[in-house]
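Whiteboard transcription, Tuesday session. T.W. wrote the structure tokens on the left side:
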């Protein structure tokens, strides 16, 4: 490390026990932060010692000071949330982590708080509260559907809306539902199961079952939305990348009075038959900038599942980028060949014309 370009700082925590929670087993969390920032981080007692480039040390100091304040307020982050929090601070110098992690959206069925776990999720929660229609677009594991359902349950329990409607396309079933065994519920249940699973995590099973039976929570395939007007509802369309253009238009025009709608999906994971354009991708182009509609974009940085999921998403994105670069190179090469062939043909035509002219 260049001593002339380095600086040192110390952060003292009043609570040594919470500092141990922050540093992690064997200081694993500190090592991760060291690697991410490229600085040196050590701990002695209840004091953290930082050393490295001034800007990076300053960022780390802000992070540890704010984490200490959160700990005093009883707010604790999971180890894999630390890098996301650090990233958020690097994006906004005026941000305090309390702005992201201090607010509870809902207590789940086990009494654990559901809250935003990063700047993108915080913006997403705010958008759902302030817009009639919100699009959450990004890779799997970024909490798009889970947070939308938490907001929906909160709205239902506070009587802000009368019903929650959860829907998603049953793409693989297509027009073949009639050939599947069982009644209609049994036919579509596999496609709706993830929504039921998230609902089970939100509230007590008996309460959820009662709300489902009374129709205050409805889970149905997207095709069942046709011809309806959805008033006084919190509506969530999940896996929207698998809605066709026609289905998306149909769904978005169902929205009635006193209703909120959230559309979630990942435009890189389209399962529609070849040749069919994703309704989500089209809506993102057509509707961006319309008043009352918010688009929230997530990236691999915002993945809140197992840390390995973020690396998997990243690997596939690198592959997709390389494939697109190769396709673009092939298109450029094909266009160059076309232009070269056209030039050859044009030169041949000129030679023939000159030959005929000289004969005359």
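and on the right, the sequence the group agreed on:
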């Amino acid at each position: 490390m260049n001593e002339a370009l380095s600086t040192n700082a110390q952060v003292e925590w009043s609570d040594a026990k919470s500092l141990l929670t922050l540093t992690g087993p064997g200081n694993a969390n500190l090592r991760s932060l060291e690697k991410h920032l490229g600085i040196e981080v050590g701990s002695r007692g209840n004091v953290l010692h930082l050393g490295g480039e001034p800007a990076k040390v300053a960022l780390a100091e802000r992070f540890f000071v704010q984490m200490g304040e959160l700990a005093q307020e009883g707010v604790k982050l999971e180890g894999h949330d630390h890098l996301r929090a650090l990233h958020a601070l690097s994006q906004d110098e005026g941000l305090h982590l309390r702005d992201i992690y201090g607010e509870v959206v809902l207590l789940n069925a086990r009494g654990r708080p559901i809250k935003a776990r990063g700047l993108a999720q915080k913006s997403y929660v705010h958008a759902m509260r302030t817009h009639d229609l919100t699009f959450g677009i990004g890779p799997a594991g970024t909490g798009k559907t889970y947070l939308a359902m938490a907001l929906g349950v909160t709205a239902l329990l506070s009587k802000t809306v009368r019903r929650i409607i959860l829907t998603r396309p049953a793409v693989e079933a297509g027009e073949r539902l009639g050939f599947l065994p069982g009644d209609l519920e049994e036919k579509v249940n596999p496609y709706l199961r993830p929504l039921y699973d998230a609902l089970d995590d939100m509230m007590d099973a008996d309460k959820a079952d009662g709300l489902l039976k009374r129709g205050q929570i409805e889970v149905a395939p997207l095709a069942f939305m046709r011809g309806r007007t959805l008033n006084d509802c919190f509506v969530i369309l999940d896996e929207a990348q698998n809605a066709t253009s026609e289905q998306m238009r149909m769904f978005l025009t169902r929205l009635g009075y006193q209703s909120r709608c959230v559309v979630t999906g990942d435009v890189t994971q389209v399962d529609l038959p070849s040749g069919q354009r994703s309704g989500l991708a089209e809506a993102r182009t057509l509707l961006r900038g319309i008043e009352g509609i918010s688009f929230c974009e997530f990236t691999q940085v915002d993945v809140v599942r197992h840390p390995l999921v973020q690396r998997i998403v990243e690997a596939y994105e690198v592959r997709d980028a390389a494939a697109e670069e190769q396709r673009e190179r092939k298109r450029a090469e094909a266009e160059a060949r076309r232009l070269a062939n056209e030039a050859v043909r044009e030169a041949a035509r000129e030679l023939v014309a000159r030959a005929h002219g000289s004969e005359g």
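Someone added at the bottom: DSSP finds twelve helices and eleven strands in the chain.
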